Amino acid sequence: MELLYKSVISEELKELEKSLLSSISSDIALATEISNYLLLSGGKRLRPALCILVSKALECDGEDLIKLASSIELLHTATLIHDDVVDESLFRRGKESIHSKWDNAHGVLVGDFVYSKAFQLMASFDNPEIIRTLADSTNRISEGEVLQLSLKSQDLLEKDYFNIVDRKTAELFKAL
Prior knowledge:
The chain is an all-alpha fold. The protein has a single domain (9-175), classed as Farnesyl Diphosphate Synthase (Orthogonal Bundle). It contains nine helices and two strands. It has a two-stranded antiparallel sheet with strand order 1-2.
């Protein structure tokens, strides 16, 4: 069953997929291969879809919209790669996680590579507020990872759980 939002913005989502693949292209074949491995494994693309839907609702669907949506998805993808390394997750989206298929070093470095590609896209915007907002969100996501790691051996209090969820999961939605 196709999600309703996908039919409403199907053309934009096609452009998004093209943009994602071209954005992570590198002359280092392995960087492209590993990045493609996760990007092509599916995912709902909920964050970029929400970005596109909100922009269209506000009648702000300029030429940078797909780049912005792509940068948000790349940020999300980078966080997933790093999260899998930290959590030692063996699978992501029904496939071996990057660090399981390759190793931790590849997971960390390709996660960094994908982060840097997101920021390269953002650097092309004329609006520094976009870069500032997404940089702040990236920082809070990283803090959420560190917080989760620091509390790993403890019984998690409800307030800590929601703080982690707010930082790791909700942060990119709030940035929209």
